[in-house]
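SUBJECT: A protein chain and its fold
Encoding: whole-number codes for local backbone shapes
RECORD BEGINS BELOW THIS LINE
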Amino acid sequence: MTSPRPVGFDEKMWTAPRREGRIVNAMSVDVEDYFQVQALEAQFPRETWPHQPQRVERNTERILDLFADSGVKATFFTLGWVARRCPALIRRMVAEGHEVASHGSDHRRADAQSPAQFLDDVRDAKAVLEDISGTLVLGYRAPSFSIAEGNLWAFDVLAEAGYRYSSSVYPVRRDFYGMPSAPRVPFYPRASHAIEEYPVSTVRLAGRNLPAGGGGFFRLLPLTVTSAAISWVNRHDQRACIFYVHPWELDPDQPRPAGVPLKSRFRHYLNLDIAERRLADLAGRFCWDRLDTVFGAADFRHPGPIGRQ
């Protein structure tokens, strides 16, 4: 049984790659600091960001170390804000064979911007990341998965800005995000096929899409549930799973401001002390690679280096 979807959402004809007989999944990291998440925006107004203790570089280095030990390649959807302050981190990603992709300039939701503002946002982030990394940035992930039925124009803007693919849709129903009407598999969100969308993975059960691709559910649910969900996507759907994690999720010692609502506190801080062990387990248990490699977007990569060398 498939999910209903708006007219014009064409599935991409694509076969999941395999390595030693196993499907290769797509690992991704949303590179942002603890004070930039939407759930804590009341505690950390944007104008205070430069004055907060910055922990994103150290936490992302921990993920890079973990991936190096496990032989995992990944896509790092990185804020332009972070790249400007941590250029060595970006260069390490490239040197170790990872994909550098865009998470926008400073974590503004796509659906909170006009088309013109969004174009400026994604163009600026792309330019900064390309200049520092020396590679062409093909991919984009909207902060808080903020592309849905109400702002599908964002895909046209991304194509105009030169992106080749997006991974901005989570086909679930949530309070801050979600697009349950979208396909659960890679698809073309616009009739022009100018850009591809790689939605974060879900499991279809009892007529609903259930999260299978990381985030808070990765910390909330037992690791056996996450592993079973990834295995289900691989074996039942014969698809690659798209998984994501944030650097702050591996940091139980991050500052904890007062006044965070109970639900946000639960979502943000739950099981931070065991997330790194869980990620290491998944890294060793399944096959992983970059999104552009798994889904073929790398075929469109520029033949040579660009930007500052």
